[in-house]
Specification:
Strand order of the largest sheet: 1-2
Number of helices: 3
Oligomer: single chain
Structural class: alpha+beta
Strand content: 15-25%
Largest sheet: 2 strands, antiparallel
């Protein structure tokens, strides 16, 4: 039974590697830095009697990329005013109304896609295909 668990773990790690590569190349946002898409990761591990495959963001704001944000206010914290560029000129304000952001999910769609291939890989390991 231990060999089958290790073989199942190996199959899950193979699928996790494929899923990670896909997430890192097909992310639906425009990168402003090289952080968010490089921090996407996937893996597999044994947890008790189970083999668990996971896909995740590696940045604090990953949940905002996945789920979007509602409209909200942004207030100056460390200085008396916010300063930002609008067109070709700078504008200052104590607070601004942000319109929110739309979801740009990559983890959940990739997880749904690889759920089937993971099942097929595990069935193949167990000889039940």
């Amino acid at each position: 039974m231990k060999r089958m668990k290790i073989a199942t773990l190996w199959a899950a790690k193979q699928q996790a590697g494929l899923a990670e590569g896909e997430m890192r190349t097909k992310f639906p946002w425009t990168p402003r830095t090289h952080t968010a898409h490089r921090a996407l990761h996937a893996g597999a591990e044994i947890s008790g009697d189970k083999v668990v495959m996971y896909l995740a963001h590696g940045v604090k704001y990953g949940n905002y990329l996945e789920e979007g944000t509602p409209p909200h206010k942004i207030k100056a914290k460390n200085k008396p005013f916010l300063k930002f560029r609008v067109g070709g000129r700078f504008v200052t304000a104590k607070e601004v109304n942000h319109p929110g952001t739309k979801p740009r999910a990559i983890v959940l769609p990739t997880a749904k896609k690889y759920k089937v291939s993971l099942r097929d890989a595990v069935l193949k390991v167990w000889g039940a295909e």
